[in-house]
Amino acid sequence: MDTSQQKKLAIAVVLLLIAFAFLLFRGCGAGEMRVDKDFYRTAAKRSADAISGALPSGSRVALISLPIEASPPYEVFCTQLEESLGKGGINVVAHEKVAASDPDALVGMLDSGSFPAGDLQDLVGRHPGLSAVISLAGAPAMSDRD
Predict the structure, then answer these.
(1) 3-state secondary structure at position 128
(2) Which among 130, 89, 94, 135 is positioned nearest to 114, based on CA atoms?
(3) pLDDT, tens digit, for every residue of 40-86?
(4) Which residues are CB-contacts of 122 (< 8 A; sequence separation ≥ 6)?
């Protein structure tokens, strides 16, 4: 992947993270949460278009996301993103969730906007030849050793 493609991919990933942060909290308030599924589907399709425009057709990617099955907006967004990437010629070879040992660990990931770097390293090790890893879980928390 040349420098121009790397820049495009980085921009697409940043836009995806911004869109996801907005989506996660849109519609939250006192009382029952209203989920506008069309809004989340459209946002996922636009994110997939940006990613597909940055990667050559046939690229192999993996998604990494948070273990938040109880969030309807998150589920709708993740499902639609994976589907739209496939339609855009991007081969999603894996969709894995980061490990949260307990609820406090998950809250810590949400607060920090990051997940354990080991999860990313494990994912890449299990799926060699990836063109990109698309994170819906924030950035990996890297140490000097990583």
Answers:
(1) coil
(2) 135
(3) 899 899 999 988 888 899 999 999 887 776 577 888 888 999 999 99
(4) none
